[in-house]
Design a protein that fits this description.
Strand order of the largest sheet of chain B: 1-3-4-7
Shape of chain B: globular
Distance between the termini of chain A: 43 Å
Helix content of chain B: 40-55%
Bound molecules: flavin-adenine dinucleotide
Radius of gyration of chain A: 21 Å
Oligomer: heterodimer
CATH topology of the largest domain in chain A: Butyryl-CoA Dehydrogenase, subunit A, domain 3
Largest interface: A-B, 47 and 45 residues
Helix content of chain A: 40-55%
CATH superfamily of one domain in chain B: Butyryl-CoA Dehydrogenase, subunit A, domain 3
Order of helices and strands of chain B: HHHHHEEEEEEEHEEHHHH
Number of helices of chain A: 12
Shape of chain A: globular
CATH class of one domain in chain B: Mainly Alpha
Radius of gyration of chain B: 19 Å
CATH architecture of one domain in chain B: Up-down Bundle
Chain lengths: 381, 305
Amino acid sequence: MDFHWTEEQAAFRQKLDDFLRAELPDGWEEFSKHGPASPALTEFARQFCRRLAEGGMLFPHWPKEIGGEGLGPWEQQILAEVMWEWGEPRGGQYMNVNWIGPTLVRYGTEAQKARYLPQIASGEMLWCQGFSEPNSGSDLASLRTRAVLEGDHYRVNGQKIWTSYAGLADTCFLLTRTSDDRKRGITILLVPMDTPGITVRQIPSLIGEGDIHEVFFDDVLVPATQRFGEEGQAWEIIGFLLTNERLGIPRYHLARAALDRAVAMLKQAGDFADAMVRAEAARCAALCEAARTANYAIVQKRVDGLPVGGESSSARFATVMAERDVCAFIVEHVPEALAGASAYLQMHHQRGVVAGIAAGAAEIQLNIIASDVLQLPREPR
Amino acid sequence: MQLSLNEDQTQVLDFVDSLTRPYAAVPMHDTSFALTSDALDGALMDNGFLDVMAVEELGPVTAALVVERLARLPFAVEAAVSSLVRPLVDPELPRPVCVVEESALRKPVRFLKPRASVIVVGPSGVRSFTASEAQVRSAGEEVLYAYPMAYLTDMPADARRHDVSAGEVRRALRVAMAAEAAGLLAGALASVTTYVSERQQFGRPLATFQAMRHRLAEAQVLTNGVYWLALRAAGTGDSGDAAMALLHAQEAAKKVGYDYHQFLGAMGMTLEHPLHLWTYRLKALTSELGGRGANALAAAEAIWG
Ligand SMILES: Cc1cc2nc3c(=O)[nH]c(=O)nc-3n(C[C@H](O)[C@H](O)[C@H](O)COP(=O)(O)OP(=O)(O)OC[C@H]3O[C@@H](n4cnc5c(N)ncnc54)[C@H](O)[C@@H]3O)c2cc1C
């Protein structure tokens, strides 16, 4: 074991950092308070991702055949950490990098790959993820948005909710029901968001403007060629993409950066001498680093080509624990951070408080740890 | 020992309930981060509900009961300091009344605005003044707390001195904050239990999952503990009781602030569900008087020296 970065890895992180320092505009921290899905950040990301792509930093971990640099999972993790620490200047395009790209490569038809991969690779495409519904959150397999095949089109009716980026996305990665079989009756459609019959409503949230939406589908006609995978194959594909998505956001890294920033503010105010405050900060740091190492252990499995199971839920919950306590530390000891005194810490709060909910609620992760890692007998149904 | 409400207290709380009934729910389509109402504020003042501490047969326990009850409302009302701290300093101070630690000017102040009364506590004793426009700096549009808040930019040299000691004002402030937290905890808990009893996943109400029931049941225990500690601290006037009450309140606030939003799922991230109106007030209270560590030390000092 070696807990140090190689020279190349350190240089890669440095290169990314330098790039961001040079490319991000003055007042970036203030600007980054706009949520990743806000119109302002989305607009910015379109320019920014193009420049990242030109510099070979949009998909460094992708294979060379599809426009990447062929770097490995560690570099993917470093990339994700640096971007998230800077407030995710890629906006919603981080999803392209983390799971949409790899999923297209694995399951897309040649026509779909030819249509979408170049747009993704040039940093110009924004997707949204139409999974959750008003009555189907944790119980995703109960979803009811219907897609009925009529000749060469599917007719889609139903409603999605919490959809990030929906207001501005080009295409929706949409889960629909094509038969009543709970899991094998779900089918993915790639739906252009400007298709007639789609209505988007923004939901006012405490995590910044433009972040979450309701999306209504009223007799939306989608060409059958836009089906992704086979009918009923969605559950398998989601399994593949969620393992990518779950490790996707290195929240522990921003939590640590926010903690360091909070401590710097306390020091500057002369309030970091108090032993209670210092001990509390150290406890938070330990939680962040415990989460970091749990995540790194999974990156290592990927490097080694080993399957990743319930331990990704364990890493994810470790991250939730870190975010929970860092958010609480800041509120308790640097309360001004959420009242205009620190754009960076406000950005962190708005992104940190969703750690236990977005991309699958924490209690579901705990259930997975209990059954898959601890191998506990299941609750009787 | 006599822990049931006396007739006067029952009557006061009944009056408070009927007066505040129109404010028990969030107005339709309101999605503000902090909810306030001048009409509610005025009605409480006109009916003397914020002055019960000075009434001989009512006193500090009744004042704490009123503060707790009002904090259960989705509306933020400046009741705690006016009811439980102001009488020690000067019962005539115009509302809203804010308390500021001399050494903590970096922190935002709840309910501060021009013409608010500011009580300053510090090594040099207790002083008060009326805030001028120039002494108040707005915290901007994006405050993530469910109280109106602003910053105090400086203190006038000629602020009025008061005879009461800083320790006594801090004790009363701890009681006030604990009583307010007790009501906020109760309001938030009611909001969450309603939601998880109705919301179904996996073919059953969320509230039937034991993982959730236990955490909610624990929250009930904490909420109940804060309620009784706050009332006892009001009743005994003891510094240790006051510090324990606020410590317990801040511990509870930290725990439920995470749990409650968790239990609502993505709904808890919206401004369309009112949960934040309680939890984001509780968050603001966790930093009062230095937070859990400082209040724990104050409690230890008061209890064991
Ligand atoms: C910021 C944000 C962005 C999002 N973006 C998207 C998006 O782009 N696309 C999309 O499709 N979705 C998105 N979501 C939705 C997200 O995937 C869901 O919020 C999540 O799956 C949880 O579902 P829910 O909100 O309906 O909560 P619910 O399923 O109603 O759960 C509420 C609470 O009950 C608990 N619970 C549920 N079942 C059990 C159980 N069996 N045992 C114990 N506890 C249980 C949960 O853990 C949670 O604490 C987003 C959410 C957020 C907050």
